[in-house]
Every structure is written in C-alpha cells, then in structure tokens.
Amino acid sequence: MSDEVLKRVVVAGGSGLVGSRLVETLLHQGTQVTVLSRDPSRLELPSGAQARGYEDLVAVLEGAAAVINLAGASIAGKRWNAAYKRELVDSRVALTTQLVEAMARCTTKPRVLVNASAIGFYGPHDGRRITEADSNGKGFLPSLCAAWEQAADAALKLGIRVVKVRSGVVLSPTGGALAKLVFPVKFFQGAKLGSGQQGFSWIHTDDIVGLYIEAAKNPEWSGPINGTAPRPLTNETFTHLVGARLHRPILPIPAFLTELGVKLLLGEMASEVLEGAFVYPARALELGYAFRFEKAEAALADLLP
Ligand SMILES: NC(=O)c1ccc[n+]([C@@H]2O[C@H](COP(=O)([O-])OP(=O)(O)OC[C@H]3O[C@@H](n4cnc5c(N)ncnc54)[C@H](OP(=O)(O)O)[C@@H]3O)[C@@H](O)[C@H]2O)c1
Question: Span 8-303: which CATH code?
C-alpha cells in the first residue's frame, strides 16, 4: 500500500457516515482536508478540516491532490417516490458533473477523482460471485449507478485519473445499516429477511475508508473497484452472526411474512433488501489491498464489542 502523504484532499459529502471517518483518517495522516457541504456553517468538523459550500468550486478544487466525492441523498433515506428518485439522481449525477466542470476550469487540476458508487450497479444476482468484470444490471439503482459513474468518467478527458468505488453495505459503529439490523435483534425480534439466501455484501467502515485513501494515493488504481469485504455472506448467516454476537435468538419467521413486511415498509426499495448479490473485491485484491476485516465475525466483534 502507498505511503505517500496526500497534501490536500477535497471531500464532497464529507459530513456523512463514511465521510466523517474518512476526514478523521486523512487528518491523522497529515493531509489538509476541505469538506464540501450544502450547508458548511452547520458542520462540526474535527480541527484542521475546513468546510466550504459548492459556490466557489474552482477555487476550492484548484491544485488539490485528490477529490473524493461521496455526496448524494441517502438511498435508504425515504421511500422511492418519483420526486425522491429524481433527488437521488440529481444529487449524484448533477453534482458530479458540477465537480468535473469546475475541475476543467482549474489551472492546476486535481490529479484524481475518487467517486463513490454502489454495488447496486450490478442489480440482484444468484449465488454466483460478482466481480468488476460483471455488467450493469437493470432497474432504477443500476441505472442510477451507471449514470453516476459516467458523470465521473467525464474527468478522464481532462487527464484526471478516475476511480469508482462500488461500495457494499458499510458496517459502522456510528449508524447506517448495522444500527438498523441490530435494533430488532436486540429486542428479540431478529429474523432473516425473505428467503435469507440473498447475498449480503458488507464492508467494515475502516476498509471502505482504506480503499478510498488507497485509490486517491496509488496511481495504479483506476476504473471500478468493488468496495466489499472478500467474504460476502447470505442475509441469514449475517443475521445469525449478529444474534450470536448480541446473545439473542433469531426468530424462525416464515419467509413470506418478512417479505410482506419489508415490501409494506420500503415499497420499491424492498428489492434491495430481499434480493442481493455476492460481490467480490477482485480488483482491490489484485492491486494488493490488505483488508483489515475479511470475515464478518471479526468485523462484528470490533463494531459490537
Ligand atoms: N453507507 C453505505 O452503506 C453505502 C453503500 C453503498 C453506497 N454508498 C454511497 O457512498 C456515499 C457515502 O455514503 P454515506 O453512507 O457516508 O452517505 P451519507 O451519510 O448519506 O452522506 C453523504 C453526504 O451527502 C450529502 N448529501 C445528502 N443529501 C444530499 C443532496 N440531496 N444533495 C447533495 N448532497 C447531499 C450530505 O452532506 P451535506 O449535508 O453536508 O451536504 C451527506 O453528508 C454515498 O454516496 C452513498 O450513496 C454508501
């Protein structure tokens, strides 16, 4: 892995779940960090980081070593009605385009754009292992991810290296999907969702941050990189591991009942939970990235002490 210290990094959406951990880690490594936010005055950043709005992008991006773009309305934030779907797309595609257009106007352009994407790019799959060589799926989320990645790829024409991190479900101690999964288990209501046989491709927050930083530093990294741990599981196995960790039973609720519950609760988004894929980080491993957490047992022991 690269020992280079990045001088200055701009993190769009650096106030979120992944961004706040990324910002802390970069600062710790001696990097100057500027966080782009829709409301910079509201942010409480660690000392040493600067918050800026999106108005004066050229000046902010000028000469940055790397731009890491994590911004976007939360995919699991609300039910996907037509208006929210538009927000999910615009907050990613239009914002990424805005960043790339500003990079084009910089005198000293950033060397690399590391753009977030999601394993939703592939759509649901059966038990087969999915790598970066697999193609784009069909449906709303695969189309959104493809358009988001295409917007980032526009920076290639400017001579900027582009890496697209197709993130799996980030397991973090401070919220996100793990908190939602743990809540019912803690209150003796844990159950596999639907058949439970769908792939659950997870990654520990330290590793997703590690991948973003390595992608920014290492000139060999380019194109799509799956941001998942090397050992994806089924939803059922993962739920049982959470139960074991919390010393709680997992209820044998019939598949059709949990399936109905998830569909009523989440609407169209339910397919993201009831279907899945076993996504494997082939490129990151080829490039020599050493995962800190390969196995879900170790990740859960760290996150649910
Ligand atoms: N966490 C996961 O499990 C996961 C899985 C797959 C992919 N990803 C992707 O990875 C990226 C980082 O994930 P995360 O969990 O850290 O995301 P997050 O906590 O939801 O934060 C992303 C940031 O995006 C900004 N944002 C929110 N709504 C926006 C909007 N409508 N327009 C522009 N900016 C907006 C916010 O910053 P300000 O309010 O400061 O502007 C927010 O802090 C996201 O793009 C996400 O889709 C995450």
Answer: 3.40.50.720
Residue spans per domain, the chain: 8-303
Q: Given the structure tokens 């989320």, which residue do they identify?
A: 141
pLDDT tens digits for range 61-96: 999 999 999 999 999 878 889 999 999 999 999 999
Q: What is the pLDDT of residues 202-259, one digit of tens each?
A: 999 999 999 999 999 999 999 999 999 999 999 999 999 999 999 999 998 989 888 8
Contacts of 69 (CB under 8 A, 6+ apart): 11, 12, 13, 95, 96, 99, 113, 114, 115, 116, 152
The C-alpha R_g of the chain, in whole angstroms, comes to 19
Q: How far is the centre of ligand 1, averaged over its atoms, from the C-alpha of 73 (Å)?
A: 6
> Strand, coil or helix: what is 9?
strand
With a Cβ cut-off of 6 Å, ligand 1 is lined by 13, 15-19, 37-38, 70-75, 87, 91, 95, 116, 118, 167, 169-170, 176-177
